[in-house]
Amino acid sequence: MKRKSFFNIVCAAAAFLIFLSLPACGGGDGGGEAADSGEGTTGTGDFEIKYNELRLPYSKSDTLDPFKAESAMNRSIVPLLYDGLFSVNKKYEPVPLVAEKYTLDGTELTVTLSGGIVFSDGVYISSDDVAYSFDCAKKSAAYGGRLKNFEKSVRINSGTIIFKLYKKDKYAASCLDFPIVKQGTVQENYKTLSKVKPPTGSGRYVFTDGSSPSLAVNNSRMGSFWPVISNMRLVSVSDSAALFYSLEIGNISFAFDDLSGGRYKRANAESAEYKMNNMVYLGFNAENASLGSPTVRRAIEQAIDRLDIVETGFQGHASQAFSPFNPEWFAAADGDFTFKGDVKNSIKALEAAGFDKINTYGIRNDGSKSLTFKMIVNKENDFKLAAAKLIAASLSKADIHVSVSALSPKDFVEAYDALDFDMYLGEVSLTANMSLAPFFTGSLSSGIYSKSAEEAYFSFASGETTISEYAAAFRKESPFIPLCFRKGVVASSRNLIGATGAWAGDIYGNIEEWRFE
What mean pLDDT comes out for the span 356-374? Predict the structure, then answer.
C-alpha cells in the first residue's frame, strides 16, 4: 500500500507494558470545526457544543509531543499528526509511509526514503530528520521498548539510512513506525507537560493551540487525502473513567476504552470491539520444584479452560490464545498452533510424571511434593481477578490446589520482583514484530528459566527456523501459558458514520471516511 492510502493503516504499535492493566483510556480537550458544521448549539459550561461538529478527546494537562505524551488519548492522536517510516496494518505488516522500501541483511536494515515528502511547513524530509527522530524515539517510554534491539542508525545519504540491530530479527521493520519529526523541533526544556509544544510533523493533520485547540487538514501533505471532515475540536476530558459519559452527554463525538481497568460499562452510542495486541498469560516461578518441570506446566495448560476465561472472566472482551503470537499476525498464518485441552489428559500426564497420589486434603502429590500453588493477581482488575479464580477452579478438577492472592498493584509488583509467587496472571502489550525477548532477557523474565525456549525463540526470529517449529519447541517447554488477547471498545455519536471501522492500532485510521448524518 502506498502513502496515498496510508490513512487506512496504523502508525503506532504498543510498547511493552507491565502486567497490571491499570486504567489507561486517556483524556481530552476541544477545538476544530467540522466541514459540515452545525445545525444549532447547546451550552455546556464554558464552551458550546455544535451539532455535527467532530470533537475528539484529549488531555490538556498532557502534551501532543509523541515522545513525551503520557495519556492514552493523546498518544492515540499522534498518528494524525505524524507519519512513521512505516505504518503497521491490522496484520502487523510494515507498510511504507515516509519510507519507500527496505532491505534486511543480517543485522543491518537499510531504508530508502520516498522522495518529495515534506513536513507541514513545506521542508523536505531527509535522513537527518529520520536519525534525529530515531534518537528521540529510542529514549522515549512510548517507543523505546520496540526499539530495544536497535543499536543505532547510520546516515548514508539524504535519502538512505541504515539501522543496526543487536540481534537478527526478520520482522524488525514493523518496529519502524515511530513518528518522523523535523530535526531540532522537539522541545527539550519545559516545566510541565502541558507547556510542551508538538514538534513539526508530516501527518494528515496539524495542531492549532489556543483557547480552542483543534486539528486541521495538513495542506502540505503529498498524495491524496480528502477527508469529509477537515477540521475538528479537541475537548479535554480530565477523568478518563468518565470518557463514555462525556460521549453520552455530547461533550465529545468519539471515545476508545482499551478496558485495561478490567471493567466494561456499556455506552449509549454506536460501538464496536477492536482486537488488541495485549496478551494475557499465566506465568510461573520455576524455582518451585514442581513448576520447574515442563511436564507439570504442560499438564496445567491441559486443564485450563480458555473459553471460560474469555467468555466469563473477560465477559467476551478477549479472544483465545493458543500461542504467544497474536493470531491476527501475518506470520502466524503459516504456523500450526493446534491445541485441545482436556482435564483427563492433564491427569494422565501428571500420573505419568509420578503425581499419582491424592492426600487427605484432595491435593495431588508424588509422595514428597504436593501440587499446591499461590497465584498472585491484581485485585483492582475485575477481568483478571475473575480469570484467576476460573483457572483455580479448572485446576482443581485435576486435583491441583491454587490459592488466589489478590493484591493491590503496588503489592503485586513487590511480590513479582521478590519472586513471592508460584504463578501470576500477567499481561504484555506485544510490539508489532511480536518480540518475546522480554520473557527471556528482559522485564518479564522473572521466574522463567528455560534456555532451550530462549534459544528456540531467537532462532525463529533470526529466520533459522519456521514458526511451526518454534510453536512445537515453545509448547514442549511451556515457559508460560498464553491465555487470551484482550479487546478494547470504541464508541461514537449515533449520527457519526464510519467512526467504528478502524482498529486498535490506529483508532483514527479511517478518519477520512467519517461523516455526519
Answer: 97
Q: What is the CATH number of domain 3-269+493-516?
A: 3.40.190.10
What Cα–Cα distance (Å) separates residue 248 from each residue in 15, 125, 253, 271, 279?
31, 41, 9, 12, 30
Q: What is the mean pLDDT of the chain?
A: 89
pLDDT bracket for residue 51 (50, 70, 90)? low
**Which sign does the torsion angle of CA 126, 132, 133, 138 carry?**
positive
Neighbours of 22 (CB within 10 A): 13
Residue 147: is its pLDDT beyond 60? Answer: yes
Query: What's the pLDDT at 106?
Result: 98
Give CATH for domain 275-487: 3.10.105.10
> Global pTM?
0.88
Distance, in Å, from the CA atom of 291 to the CA atom of 447, rounded to the nearest integer, reads: 10
Question: Which amino acid is present at 242?
Answer: A
Mean pLDDT, residues 129-151: 98
Per-domain boundaries in the chain: 3-269+493-516, 275-487
Q: What is the DSSP string of 33-55?
A: --TT--S-EEEETTEEEETT--E
Q: Which helix (H) or strand (E) holds 415?
A: helix 409-417
Half-sphere exposure of 229 (CA within 13 A, CB side): 29
Give the total residue count for the chain.
Answer: 517
Q: Tell me the percentage of the chain whose pLDDT exceeds 70.
A: 89
DSSP one-letter string for 107-134: TEEEEEEPTT-B-TTSPBP-HHHHHHHH
Distance CA(117)–CA(111), nearest Å, equals 15
